[in-house]
Amino acid sequence: MATTNTNAAFNPQKAEVFGDQFVNALNNGAMCLMVSIGHRTGLFDVMSQLDQPASSQAIAERAGLNERYVREWLGAMTTAGVVEVDPATNRFWLPAEHASLVTRAAGADNLAVFAQYIGLLGGVEDNIVDCFKQGGGVPYEKYPRFHEVMAEDSNQSVLSNLETHIVPLVPGLADQLAGGIQVLDVGCGRGRIMNRLAELYPASQFLGVDLSREAIDYARAESKARNLRNIEFEISDLSNFDERAQPDVFDFVTTFDAVHDQAKPLNVLRGICRTLKPDGIYLMQDIKGSSHVHNNLDHPIGTFLYTISCMHCMTVSLAQGGEGLGAMWGEEKAREYLERAGFSSVVKNELAHDIQNNWYIVRK
């Protein structure tokens, strides 16, 4: 067995490299917080619409914000290299190349949406530290904005590509939906995906279930506002879904990044297998990665995903007395759980626009 010699001679160059890496991490973490603020306040959107560099006062007025805060935000964004400044006039602009990645007009390419997770998770740091010492978990109610951010995240990775990339993953699915089938979304959150499908395919019947009352209330309000009559939403704890799922009911079942943070993920999958018709399809979107950390060393957002797992996905499961599987449960364990749940066929798909998820087409 290979071992690591922790008593090897101290390497000052290695220490210097790590020190530089850590300083960069501090700056990048701070940048994410300020990028989140720029996104939430609309500052990036305002700056992308300027026809010439502008002062902090002009930018603040156009955004309807306090100039002193905008000025300090511009300082952070300029030193981070996100915004540029003319030193002669102290006027600022957002390069078009940067705007293409941090504005709402960027659509699915808007990376500013993901920056919101840093501040959101920082809000529960004290709770997580307590869990490190005492065990247990942090419940959903400690994350007041999580469903809002997740919905925005899903809007980019799923909703914006629903018709063009995701429905076509299952051959013939669009025709089935148009003809009329029974559809279930497990862990539906705010229901944006199901509401969109219900709107596109009025002949089909849709049901979304989620543990969060806030999320379900939002989903119901949206379906009512759209006057959708072919969709329902239910508040439900799916820990015993393997026992109470009605057999052979649904033609198509979906989960969108929802299995790994369940209290009893295997029970959820067994329930899905039970409620799926013999010729039905289960579409599971879940985090792309390996179950073994050494295989994730080159993952482009590995640290980000492990952090979200530790500070949300894993801990909300543990708060329910659950398994605490975590977001980085990985493809190997996902396949193992699907097999144990009773599925016989699992085909993995990857989408070019989505660096964080695998898309599994699953059959009994």
TrEMBL record:
<dbReference type="InterPro" id="IPR036388">
    <property type="entry name" value="WH-like_DNA-bd_sf"/>
</dbReference>
<dbReference type="InterPro" id="IPR053173">
    <property type="entry name" value="SAM-binding_MTase"/>
</dbReference>
<dbReference type="Pfam" id="PF13847">
    <property type="entry name" value="Methyltransf_31"/>
</dbReference>
<protein>
    <submittedName>
        <fullName>Transcriptional regulator</fullName>
    </submittedName>
</protein>
<dbReference type="InterPro" id="IPR029063">
    <property type="entry name" value="SAM-dependent_MTases_sf"/>
</dbReference>
<dbReference type="InterPro" id="IPR048711">
    <property type="entry name" value="WHD_Rv2258c"/>
</dbReference>
<dbReference type="Pfam" id="PF21320">
    <property type="entry name" value="WHD_Rv2258c"/>
</dbReference>
<feature type="domain" description="S-adenosylmethionine-dependent methyltransferase Rv2258c-like winged HTH">
    <location>
        <begin position="30"/>
        <end position="104"/>
    </location>
</feature>
<dbReference type="InterPro" id="IPR025714">
    <property type="entry name" value="Methyltranfer_dom"/>
</dbReference>
<dbReference type="InterPro" id="IPR036390">
    <property type="entry name" value="WH_DNA-bd_sf"/>
</dbReference>
<feature type="domain" description="Methyltransferase">
    <location>
        <begin position="180"/>
        <end position="293"/>
    </location>
</feature>
